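Let us practice reading a record.
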Amino acid sequence: MSSRVSATVFVGLCALGLATLQAVGVSEQQAEAFSRKLAIVNKQAEPVRRGEKPPGLRRTPFTEAEVNSWIAYRGQDLLPAGVSDPELTLVGNGKVRAAATVDLEQIAKRRSTGRTLDPWSYLGGRLPVTLTGTLHTQEGVGRFELEDAAVSGVPVPKSLLQDVVAYYSKSNDDPEGVRIDQSFRLPAHIRQIELGLGQAVVVQ
């Protein structure tokens, strides 16, 4: 998975943020269930990779607990350094609510102007960041539509969250980082992801 896709998945899924070990339903068994289903999704993409015609639409459901468990037990490498304790809620109708503890110290030092109305002048250290938005997916392309964001429970503008995402998604291939509302190609020839209440269904 490229750095751009990994960062976008973090934004669109983070980028979902995922449940802590104390969350209800998080377990190694659920993480294993997610791994098995992920292997199925990858295997179902093989005919398309070989240039063959797919046999028809296939749907693979993932529960919120399975996703959260996989991130908690096996997916920590997807989280950028400085981001921890992610928590995800699949609200339904494509909407997700996410939270994570984020180290804002270095970003604040770079972005703060020292002006009274500059929010970066008041931020620093490790703080809880929350966001709510809708994941739109169609014909193999995804886009995350941010609705609101907050730091320590205080609403913040989209531009501030964009600074956070850009900082943590920078790479040699993408020195400017990922934009929150940037469209991205879904991996494994996934056509769309249907987000319902407590469940995500991968359609290939």
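A brief commentary: Residues 3-203 form one domain.
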